[in-house]
Amino acid sequence: MSHLLDRLASWKPFTALVVGDFMLDELVHGNIDRLANDAPVPVMHVQRTEQRPGGAANVGLDLAAMRGRVLAFGAAGPDRAGHELRALMSAAGVEPAGLIEDAARPTTVKRSLIGLAQHRHAQKMFRMDYESREPLGDRAAEALLDAVRAHLPGADVVCIEDYAKGVCTPRVCQGVIEAARAARVPVLVDPAALNDYSRYRGAAVITPNRSEAEKACGRRVGDRAPAEAYAPLARELVGALALDAAVITLDKDGALLLERDGEARAVPTVARRVYDVTGAGDMVLAALAAARANGLDWFDSVRFANAAAGLEVEEFGVVPIALERIHRDILQRERATRGKRRSLDELLVELAAIRHPGNGQAEARRPRIVLANGCFDVLHAGHVSLLRRAAALGDFLVVAVNDDAGVRKLKGPGRPIYPIEDRVQLLGELECVGAVVVFSEDTPERLIRAVRPDVLVKGAQYDPASVPGAAFVESYGGQLALLDVVEGRSTTGTVERIRTAT
Prior knowledge:
The structure is a single chain. By secondary structure, the protein is α/β, with parallel strands linked by helices. The chain has 2 domains: about 5-25 and about 60-110 and about 135-340, Ribokinase (UDP-N-acetylmuramoyl-L-alanine:D-glutamate ligase, 3-Layer(aba) Sandwich), CATH 3.40.1190; about 350-500, Rossmann fold (3-Layer(aba) Sandwich). It is about 35% helix and about 25% strand. The strands form 3 sheets. Strands 5-4-1-8-9-10-11-12-13 form a 9-stranded mixed β-sheet, with helices on both faces. β6 and β7 (about 120-130) form a beta hairpin. The radius of gyration is 27 Å and the shape is elongated. Mean pLDDT is about 90; it is low at about 360-365.
């Protein structure tokens, strides 16, 4: 297992403070069927309106989905939108502990009109912003900093998400960074599009996109330039701002990582079906923070963030991505080199992602996990037929295989014909098989108890009362399926015919 997967398998909850511009997003959905009679403009027939926490709250929601306890620090007005924002954040698992009330400014509200073109697909048409970009006043800034200082003990990481709405002033940013450094808590920054980044000096890392990095450094690199071409900009940022590292995000080209006193490293991403890039920057900051809070090094943290952001852009709007989905995505991306073999820990992570409500399945339909076990020595048509029928009973088929010692114990000397590595590889090539896991015990009972399959499959020649794990599976409403074997097809018979022929 790679170092990244090893760390993800031992992932622990953490505490994150998020400082920044918190907003209320209002999404007005409707159908676009005609143009107005009095002007050449589309007319939206409004169907529904929804409200969501937005801005820096997106970082908070992303962190919460990665098992973080999240506390928010910013400013909101003494208005209805501010009350709604606090309530929505609390309901989503983000504590508005430091969202101070500032009578001098309204709560930032972004109202987006989202039309359904010919009742087919959603498309954002227009956005109206209600906001003040005036810098936070001295009294409000000090109250915000006091709240941050009071909650730093026990925090694992601090995020600054700057949307240039007036909260992340030089005074606030430097006050947060100085207090966090004194408490030995790293600060990660997603900067605003500014010419001067001095307000972020002393942070652990900064995560501008390519255009923001070019603006801050005052020179262009070019859209078609390779990732390595951004190394001088990253080095300038690290040096000028006394950072531990800089991560320049390059959308489809992944990211460039530069650690202080290190060489620049391109961190590629995978091709995605991009639907909406909204929230990708927030996700990068959240994923980096969660990874660093869990002890991942900078390179693996950026790999983790790339995977999380890739899943985010496949969604419409801002959708928090659960840790299980990110972990499974990384597992799947490594299949090209690792195949379908899983340790039990890896398998449990993948199954948790499949079962998670955010995995793309309709909530009313819980995915069914099927488990079949056996020696699978000298794979033949009978095995393939049974596994295909087993897979048809659910959504994901796990095949548990006896190790070599287990096969010898069951089948006698001279078996297995094929060692475990070969048997796993052959099973992994079957399209119907989702994952292969090896067990060394006399029976797969312990593995079955860990997996908790919805369907347990064995051949019809077995007595139901003798099938390991059957009683346990049925105890929670699972099913034992005894499938007919293909007559005349068995490994023992095949081996005997080969030996007789020779």
